[in-house]
């Protein structure tokens, strides 16, 4: 008998990064939605569940002088809604406060 010198690779899970329990690989989506006329609504979703959404909302409202609220959605979970186009401001806030990294944040909209 001839012995071969190689190893069989173990099973690789292609979705291992998406299933990361710490939430470090999850994307934070920042979207803007047109309301009536020039009015806009900015939504932030995908923040880890262990963060206090109310506390984040309070700090964001104070920094950007806008109003907002936290909405519980059946499919998306908790979503932060802010008045106006606050996409760049929210991105800067999340980076400054170390709530998300640059590669985790995804900005959508026109």
From TrEMBL:
Family stated for the protein in its record: Belongs to the SUI1 family.
Q: What biological function has been recorded for the protein in this entry?
A: Probably involved in translation.
| Record-level Gene Ontology MF annotations | mRNA binding; translation initiation factor activity
Under the heading InterPro entries, the entry gives: SUI1, SUI1_dom_sf, SUI1_euk
Query: Could you tell me the Gene Ontology terms of the biological process aspect for this record?
Result: regulation of translation
Q: Which SUPFAM superfamilies match?
A: eIF1-like
Q: Which PROSITE patterns match?
A: SUI1
A Pfam entry, by short name: SUI1
Domain SUI1, which positions?
28-98
Name the CDD domains on file: eIF1_SUI1 (cd11566)
- UniProt keyword list: Protein biosynthesis, Translation regulation
Name-wise, this protein is SUI1 domain-containing protein
């Amino acid at each position: 008998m001839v012995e071969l010198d190689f190893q069989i690779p173990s099973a690789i899970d292609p979705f291992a990064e998406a299933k990361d329990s710490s939430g470090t690989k999850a994307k934070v989506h920042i979207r803007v939605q047109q309301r009536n006329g020039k009015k806009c609504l900015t939504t932030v979703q995908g923040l880890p569940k262990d963060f206090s959404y109310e506390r984040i909302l309070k700090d964001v409202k104070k920094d950007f002088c806008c109003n907002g609220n936290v909405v519980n959605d059946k499919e998306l979970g908790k979503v932060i809604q802010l008045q106006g186009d606050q996409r760049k401001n929210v991105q800067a806030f999340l980076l400054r406060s170390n709530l998300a990294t640059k590669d985790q944040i995804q900005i959508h909209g026109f």
